[in-house]
Amino acid sequence: MPDHNIKVALIGNPNTGKTSVFNQLTGLNQQVGNYPGITVERKQGSCNLPLGFRGIILDLPGTYSLNASSIDENVVIELLLNKNDSDFPDVAVVVTDVENLKRNLLLFTQIKDLEIPTILVINMADRMDFKGISIDIPYLESRLNTRIALVSSRKKTGIDYLKSLIVDYNAISTEPCVNASSIDPEYFNALRKAFPKQSLYKLWLVITQDVNFSNLNKRVLETQNFAKPNSELKRLQQKETIKRYQFINDVLKEGRTIDTAKARDFRSRLDRVLTHKIWGYVIFAAILLLIFQSIFDWSSYPMDWIDGGFTSLASYAAEHLPKGTFTDLISQGIIPGIGGIVIFIPQIAFLFLFISILEETGYMSRVVFLMDKIMRRFGLSGKSVVPLISGTACAIPAIMATRNIENWKERLITILVTPFTTCSARLPVYSIIISLIIPRNRVLGIFNTQGLTLMALYLLGFATAVLSAYLLNKVLKIKNKTFFVVEMPNYKLPMFKNVGLNVLEKTKAFVFGAGKIILAISIVLWFLASFGPGKDFKNAKSIVTNELRATNPNPTKLEIDEKTASYKLENSYIGIMGKTIEPVIRPLGYDWKIGIAILSSFAAREVFVGTLATIYSVGDSDNENTIKDKMQAEVDPETGKKVFNFASGISLLLFYAFAMQCASTLAITRKETNTWKWPLSQLIFMSGLAYLVALTAYQFLK
After folding, report:
1. What is the CB neighbour count within 10 angstroms for residue 545?
2. How far apart are CA 300 and CA 448, in angstroms?
3. Are 60 and 88 spatial neighbours (Cβ–Cβ below 8 Å)?
4. At a CB cut-off of 8 Å and minimum separation 6, what does 520 contact?
5. Which is more confidently placed, 180 or 611?
6. Of the candidates 356, 363, 364, which has an alpha carbon nearest to the alpha carbon of residue 383?
7. Where are the beta strands (DSSP E) in 351-472?
8. Rounded to two decimals, what is the model's pTM?
9. Cβ count within 10 A of residue 476
10. From residue 59, how far is each of 54, 98, 343, 348, 412 by CA, in Å?
11. pLDDT digit string (tens) for 248-270?
């Protein structure tokens, strides 16, 4: 049995089901990373093929053609141009949608010109009867010089046949199906004579695109007098596209028939409702309300179970492990710190579940179309909605998603305002504070007041992002002119495998990404809270005992232990740091412990809860209390009032709604804008705004 890897490049337009085909081929054998040197996400997986072969599947970014207009599309072109690239494919698999073959085949004909064995996958075959579509596969294979796999990733049909075609890729013709050089025969003949050993179409891509090909680049071609003015290049590209579509129309005229009488299409009627100028927004708001109600209602039971489990684990560790510093570190530092983030797994998972379902059904594209009408008034377009909505998961990939926005001004504004969108890292902070200060009542017997509060915070973040975009559009003097084009994919039932994989991948990335930071910070915080300088810390017990005896000759051991723990915490390293910054944050309603949590959460917002869990656990004589119980019982020794009351709670919620508490977001903004000017502006503006809003709210409500 041969033992050989076949490298497969999976290529296609957005919304053709390329990801579904990738998931069917690879299953759980997937790795997610970035292309070397750039922060464009790449997915790679493996699968077993017939005859003992193994396929290495690279899922390339979605692209409409090889006429690149974004960084993602450049990745596709440069990989397919350079045979020396370690990822250069043995075979290209172009995924198309049975309902959009005409548009999808443009990319296919271009890739065929690169002289790479190319397989055509016609996906969503299960919709052919529903749409009244019939296809003559042998005819299309003959005209397109390729082999075709008719696939339904939903019903899992055609995948085995596709695998057999991949194994037999050497038998597939590499002859182009369109003679692109006929758009200017004289020019292309001269190009062929100058570079007889090079692929003619690859040279054309180097001339027209900002890409490199082996040792050739535009400079080399310019010295050979092959450079042309941009206007002339655009004219020739248009001629090439027209020629390709003429060929595609001719092929589909004979190879595909659509009998509208047999179609059972309700898409148009549904679109009229979901994109209606009034009902469209009402339905979208109702869906958001359902999501936020569910996040609080459905997740409450598993969250209580996890919270209690970690509390019991910390108590068990304190009681059964040998007494000493290491046990204190585990029971008071590591377990409470990690528990402070694991407790929010149910809410994070539900959030990603709903986002995945909206994307899988095709509804998210309708939201983009719907919101374009509003975005235009604020200097943005519907394309900006994708990063803003993606920001509800994480600002980092959302900012990276702005690469699909061609206009620099529009892209820059989107990058700068996206962090205002409420990301999943804010959810742990919102959740714990809302549960402390907002009673769990019902409105109209249906709506949960805590869920309504959460929705209000999400809407506040989105509104702030849009308002900031409006101001930046007025301030930034950059010329821009853009056209908005969005594809409306067909509605379809979500594939549970895709949704499940997405939820698992995103939740795992969130937990492990935050977990590493929290574990490190929890250990540091425990050390700073467990040790301190000077005699006050070392002689804490005797000092506290003397103070208690001044008012009570016979204090109990429990009173002495509790007062000693509190006294040592205030005089520890972290207590000294907190007391130092307390004058700055006291007007916002925060004590020094909250101040430490705010500072530590600059690494990542979700660290806030883990930090308080660690601080409140150090020296705690009652290990049975959950983090929520400890926060609920925390009292300001100066005022005698609860630290987390309505005024301070609202102040905290608003602070985290506006503050730039994420070093990673600043780093990605620096990378995408190639300067520290914009991330530093983000940090100063967002932090200043957060402080002022929180200050105003607390002073008004207290």
Report:
1. 15
2. 12
3. no
4. none
5. 180
6. 364
7. 442-443, 447-448
8. 0.55
9. 14
10. 16, 20, 34, 26, 28
11. 988 988 888 765 555 555 666 77
